[in-house]
């Protein structure tokens, strides 16, 4: 058995010529390629050397669409909404990770998680109250908030139930970990607003409350509030979408999604945490010994291969393996990829910029020889922490947990080139 067969293929230098194998070469007037195999040039009405239909008449007017939308040929690139969940009360939709490139999630595809629906808030009537252990309680309008010095930063937000420990059977990358998205956020550092009110020495927590029907409430430790926490009003350059907390939300880079309170109406500065529903009966982690961990703020290092990934199909020969990695603790320092089900690992290229608490894109050139195999990725962050496999994770955490599952995700590749979830028996 050759090494290539055993390993499910070889790793390739991207400098290699003829990456597409048979290629799209024009041979003696005939196009020879993988897609238009050995067809006569001109046999496709809109293909070379014919003039395509869309060149023969002027296109649509400028401004035919005052707010732009994707090409009608991209209709399948939409949020992934799980069926059978009571959407009106405990709703979520997932980002189609396998359809996206780069590290920024378009606003219309940002994942959603709502506990009481999406309120329609008039920013002219919206107020933020800052009170509790402060020198000067404040009631701020959105105009007041926009007068503070602003800042823009790129960060991911990830739901801590992404996915639950018993929910590893999804078909696509989105089914498995689509509750993560990344945007450029603009707003005011939370410490600036707290300084305006003046913190009293006993201040240890800030309890944030949303203006939705769930009145979602979370206690934020004061250290985070005085570090990189922000109150944000814009997302990828435009005002927040209603789904993301319009007109104002909390952004806690690297902390579990639930703490990033949307539709923010109140910051109550306290000496003790509130022990709200979302930090007691929910968003705590049951351990094998019957105890529960509370306040597990950080999202640990994680990665997933998004292409090729579940439900896609690959051809033999050259394939680029690409995906995303992220860590709530800081920068991603390394992503390793295995093309032989974890026997050996190769360091992938990281696409700049590699930002703290942001999605990081990785890539590895690969030549698949047609042998069935499994491909995996594992991330390391700047603390030296390495993403565990599911077995190692559940040895520590057991199976009573729901939140904070950052296990390595294997994609199985069948002889046909079909890609499927390696957690599900073939
Ligand atoms: N007010 C309020 N804030 C909220 C929620 C909510 O239901 N109400 N959901 C939380 C949860 S569980 C998550 S994972 C994130 C989701 O943010 P997104 O919908 O912008 O992706 O918002 C958090 N903030
Ligand atoms: Mo969440």
Q: Total number of β-strand segments?
A: 27
Bound compounds, please?
the ligand Nc1nc2c(c(=O)[nH]1)N[C@H]1C(S)=C(S)[C@@H](COP(=O)(O)O)O[C@H]1N2, molybdenum atom
Radius of gyration: 24 Å
Shape: globular
- End-to-end separation in angstroms reads 24 Å
Strand content: 25-35%
Here the CATH topology of the domain at 106-283 equals Sulfite Oxidase, Chain A, domain 2
In round numbers, the mean pLDDT is 92
Note the total helix count.
6
CATH class wording of the domain at 106-283: Alpha Beta
Helix content: under 10%
Name of the CATH homologous superfamily of the domain at 106-283: Oxidoreductase, molybdopterin-binding domain
Helix-and-strand structural type? mainly beta
Describe the structure concisely for a colleague.
It comes from Methylobacterium trifolii. With 426 residues, the protein is mainly β.
Report on the structure:
This protein is mostly beta strands and 426 residues long. Among the domains are: 178 residues, Sulfite Oxidase, Chain A, domain 2; 120 residues, Immunoglobulin-like (Sandwich). The chain has six helices and 27 strands. The longest helix has 8 residues. It is globular. The N terminus is likely disordered. The site of the ligand Nc1nc2c(c(=O)[nH]1)N[C@H]1C(S)=C(S)[C@@H](COP(=O)(O)O)O[C@H]1N2 has 20 residues, from strand 6.
């Amino acid at each position: 058995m050759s090494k290539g067969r055993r390993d499910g293929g070889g790793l390739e230098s991207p400098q290699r010529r003829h990456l597409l194998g048979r290629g799209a070469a024009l041979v003696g007037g005939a196009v020879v390629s993988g897609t238009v195999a050995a067809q006569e040039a001109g046999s496709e009405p809109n293909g070379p050397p014919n003039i395509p239909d869309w060149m023969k008449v002027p296109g649509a007017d400028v401004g035919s669409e005052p707010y732009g939308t994707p090409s009608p040929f991209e209709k399948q690139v939409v949020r992934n909404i799980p069926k059978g969940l009571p959407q009106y009360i405990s709703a979520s939709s997932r980002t189609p990770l396998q359809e996206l490139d780069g590290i920024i999630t378009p606003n219309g595809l940002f994942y959603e998680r709502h506990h009481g629906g999406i309120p329609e808030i008039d920013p002219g009537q919206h107020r933020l109250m800052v009170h509790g252990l402060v020198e000067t309680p404040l009631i701020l309008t959105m105009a007041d908030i926009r007068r503070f010095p602003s800042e823009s930063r790129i960060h991911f937000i990830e739901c801590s139930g992404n996915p639950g420990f018993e929910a590893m059977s999804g078909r696509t990358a989105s089914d498995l970990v689509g509750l993560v998205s990344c945007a450029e956020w603009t707003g005011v550092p939370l410490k600036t607003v707290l300084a305006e009110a003046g913190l009293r020495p006993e201040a240890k927590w800030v309890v944030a409350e949303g203006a939705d029907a769930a009145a979602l409430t979370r206690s934020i430790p004061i250290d985070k509030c005085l570090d990189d926490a922000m109150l944000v009003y814009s997302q990828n350059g435009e005002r927040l979408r209603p789904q993301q907390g319009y007109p104002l939300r909390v952004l806690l880079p690297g902390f579990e999604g639930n703490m990033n309170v949307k539709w923010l109406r109140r910051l109550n500065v306290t000496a003790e945490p509130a022990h709200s529903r979302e930090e007691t009966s929910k968003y705590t982690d049951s351990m094998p010994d019957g105890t529960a961990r509370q306040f597990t703020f950080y999202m640990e290092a994680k990665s997933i291969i998004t292409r090729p990934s579940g439900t896609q199909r690959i051809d033999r020969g050259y394939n680029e393996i690409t995906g995303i990695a992220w860590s709530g603790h800081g920068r991603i320092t390394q992503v390793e990829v295995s093309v032989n089900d974890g026997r050996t690992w190769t360091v992938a290229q990281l696409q700049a910029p590699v930002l703290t608490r942001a999605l990081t894109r990785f890539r590895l050139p690969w030549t698949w020889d047609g042998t069935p195999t499994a491909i995996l990725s594992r991330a390391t962050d700047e603390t030296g922490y390495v993403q565990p496999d599911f077995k190692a994770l559940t040895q520590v955490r057991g199976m009573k947990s729901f939140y904070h599952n950052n296990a390595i995700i294997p994609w199985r590749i069948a002889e046909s080139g079909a890609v499927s979830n390696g957690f599900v028996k073939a």
